[in-house]
Structure formats: structure tokens, C-alpha cells
Write a structure and sequence with these properties.
The chain is mainly alpha-helical. About 65% of the residues lie in helices and about 0% in strands. The protein starts with 16 loop residues before the first helix and ends with a helix.
């Protein structure tokens, strides 16, 4: 979070909210994409061809739905990154490692369940 990929200079009152979140979106989505590629690699290495093909066809991770009126799961994570950073809280590696673990686990389960239903 110390590296800002997107730099901007404008008065706060003119700053579109989306611009404020830009660096946090890059950070979150970069981590997700790297994790996605690692999972593809792991599935290929482990010979889990059907799971590999299903994840590749999916072309991204899927995220749990949130309750009506709330931010999407992804937007909530991005806002959490932003809020912690803007409030001066240190980046919590353990919390985000745990979050990434559960995203990966959620996607594995979705794929395994989808493939299992195919054979039922």
C-alpha cells in the first residue's frame, strides 16, 4: 500500500470518489489476479484437469453475494483497504492473507460442487 500506482492532484472537494479508490482497487485486484494464476498453476500441477478447465473457463474468481443495499464483496474489501490506509492503520497482512485464503477456498468449493453435480 506504500506504492501508489495512480497519482493525482486535485482539490479534495473536486475529487471523484472513484479516483480516491483507484490505488486500492489496483492493490486488491492485483492480489486476486496473482492468486488466480497460482491456483490455475496448482490445479494443473496436481493433475486436476477438470477443475483447471473450469477455473480457466470462469476466467476470474467469483465472490459471495452480499445483502441487498450493501456494497459488493469486492467493493467492501477495497473500501476496507482505503479506510485503514486513510486512517493511518498499518496494513494488516494476516487479515488480508486470511481473506485471500477464503476467496480461494470459496472458488475451489464452487468448482468442486459444480463438477460433483455434473456426476450426480
Amino acid at each position: 500500500m506504500n506504492v501508489r500506482m495512480i497519482n493525482y492532484e486535485m482539490p479534495d472537494e473536486e475529487m471523484p470518489v472513484k479516483v480516491v479508490y483507484a490505488n486500492y482497487e489496483v492493490a486488491f485486484l492485483s492480489a486476486i489476479y496473482v492468486m488466480y494464476l497460482f491456483l490455475l498453476s496448482d490445479l494443473e500441477r496436481d493433475g486436476k484437469t477438470e477443475c483447471y478447465e473450469e477455473l480457466k473457463k470462469q476466467a476470474t474468481f467469483v465472490f459471495p453475494k452480499t445483502n441487498f443495499g450493501h456494497d459488493s464483496y469486492v467493493q467492501g474489501r477495497i473500501k476496507t483497504l482505503a479506510l485503514n490506509d486513510l486512517c493511518g492503520n498499518d496494513f494488516d497482512v494476516l487479515t488480508y492473507a486470511d481473506m485471500l485464503f477464503w476467496i480461494e477456498r470459496y472458488n475451489k468449493e464452487m468448482i468442486y460442487n459444480k463438477l460433483q453435480m455434473k456426476y450426480d
